[in-house]
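Can't paste images in this forum, so I'm doing it all in text. The chain is below; anyone willing to post the predicted structure tokens underneath?
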Amino acid sequence: MIKILTSISHKIWQKKIYQYIFFAIASIITISLMGYYFGTFDQAIHIPFLKKYADPSLFPNDIFFNLRNFHYSFFWYFFIPFYRLRILEITMFITHFLATFLTFLAIYNLAKTLFKNPIASFLAVIAFIFPHLGFAGFPIFEFSLLNRTFTLPFLLLAINLYLNKKPLYAFLILGLMYNIHVISVNFVLAMFIFDSLLRIREIGFKNFIKQFLTFLLFASPVLIWKFSNSHVDIGLDRSWFYIINNSLLAHVFTLITTNPLINFTILNGISAIIIFFLTLPIKKTENDLKISNFIWAALVILVVQVVAGTWLPLTIIIQSQIIRVGIFVNIFAYLYFAGYISELFSNKKIKLNKIILLIFALSFSISPLISLVILLLHKNVNNKSFINVLKYLIIVIFLLTLIIFKFMNIWRPGINIYPIKDDNYDVQIWAKNNTPKDAIFITPPALWWFYDLEWRVVSERSTVSTLSELLESAFLPSYIDYWRPRFEDVAPKALKQFSDDPLKNIIITKKAYYSLSEKDIIRISKKYGAKYFVSEKPSQYQFPIVYQNNGFTIYMIFL
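Text version of the structure:
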């Protein structure tokens, strides 16, 4: 085992071609495990926005699309030519694969910089093949292409350059990536600034200003867009925050709650922080000190999130979704965990069965809490049988967690380069092919999830209101005033029942929609000029049917 691990890691270390093969294999396994979906989750917003940019005649008079002017990213513009060439889906999948590949490359090189050990770099890649959930529940790799997932490898590259004393290039990359995903870059920028200020005598004030100006220069396109379009909102809007927090986004804003799923993610995030400090070498290198400063910066950000999410929801803080800094906490924690194992391995300070136990904890721990428990136990456990039991237990917990997540529809593996052609897809295709572009539909507002198509994605037709619109209205408080009365029309009394449990809120919304009487539907139809009403079976109405399949029925409403 030791010889095999040493041999493989050294061969990969020595030849680039072996590294690329390794990263490609890791990418294939990760994408297969996490799944890949088109047009679902956050793409339920981005794909319709992209189509609207490519074809302005779509969704006429749909106020929802004004939100795209406040989504400060140039990322989706690059895909407009591919949409027009009708190769959008395959292009996005290839980009997703490349982003995954580059992330593994960046992780490997970052571990190389930190530990200068082939085994550490090898184990770091192995660790991130499998998901590890931290604050807010976001894994490192996701199941669809998003601007934040595309940005990640370049941010890791910037961190690597910063550690290698090339801060000017690091800030340059941050500036470029600011045009792709502002939120992610803000976290790394905050870490760099925090570390630079702590070491300002060493760095020099003039050098720091030069680096920051470099960032501003390369970030200027999106900064000009932002400040020519809207100001930085430092005000308080508690009603807006209450709605977005008590709908779909509680996990992004809440660090103090009674929701067990959110508490699970918080516990995971705290565990990752502890793992980092436990595996940090006693004799710290200069880079160890820099990463420590990054972690302290992240902790400051998380404290700000606690204050904002609990007592003082300043708009700019809520819009920035700063709990997402937990992604970098997870990355640093598992990098140092890999470095810790490699140090024990290289110095032969520990028996083989314990090494395997630690590698299992590093790799197969969806919850960092599992890794933390094993990390705390391994020094005091010497019974071979008990160590074997712990190894099997890690695997059992890993598999059991996947089963639970699959049952909850949180995990659904499968490679879907194109939209899944189910009843939802078919009903949207009918709407696209058989109604004018200005047609308005009344559709189930809860028709959205990680792996389900939202109405606008394929149909390219407007709807009165959806729950998923709140994903984007988190960036523009004023949109709530437009959204709320429309949502209350299609899902009466649902908002009053909402809590910080998004799964429950989706069920509440669905029940509220199907509580509508035919008189309610006619009233909504006249109010918003909606000629079509969509329902899921087995619900039935007396309106004329224009289309139906096994899952859905479309009714014509005569105005």
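The chain has two domains: 72-407, 423-556. The CA atoms of residues 133 and 139 lie 5 Å apart.
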